[in-house]
C-alpha cells in the first residue's frame, strides 16, 4: 500500500526551491558590501554614585556545649587459645640406592671437507644523474639569430 510516486515529485520541487533561494542571497551580500555604515556618535559615560556601605555586624558566638562524660566500656574477657593435639610424625621408607649407569662413548665425527672460498658478488652501481637536466617543452626553442 506504499506510494512510490511521492519521491519523484519531491526531487524537482526541491531543486526549484534551492535555485530560487540562491539568487537572493547573492544580491543581498552585494548590497551589504556596497553600503556604507553611518558613523555612530560616542555617548558620554555616565558616572554612577558609589554603592552604600553595609554596617559591620558583630560576630555571633555560640555558647560552649557542656562536656558529657561517657561511661567506661565494659571489659571483654580474653579467651584461651584452644590447644590442638599433636599428631605423630609418619616414618617414611628409605629410598633404595640406584647405581649410576655407564655413559656410552660416542664415535668421533669425520672432519668436514674443505670448501673453496667463493667469490663475493659485486653490487651494481647506481648511475648518477646530471645536475643540469633540460626540461622538455612543446614549443620550439627561440633562435638567437633572425632569418
Account of the 3D structure:
The radius of gyration is 55 Å and the shape is flat. It has one helix spanning 6-34. With 147 residues, it is an all-alpha fold.
Summarize the structure.
By secondary structure, this protein is mainly α.
Keywords:
mainly alpha; 147 residues; single chain; flat; 1 helix
Q: Flag low-confidence runs.
A: none
β-strand number: 0
The percent range for strand residues is under 5%
Taken in chain order, the helices and strands follow as H
N→C terminal distance: 85 Å
Q: Provide the residue-averaged pLDDT.
A: 81
Overall shape: it is flat
**Structural class category:** mainly alpha
Rg of Cα set: 55 Å
Helix content: 10-25%
Give the biggest beta sheet: none
Total count of helical runs of at least 4 residues: 1
Ordered list of secondary-structure elements with their pairings:
Layout: H1 6-34
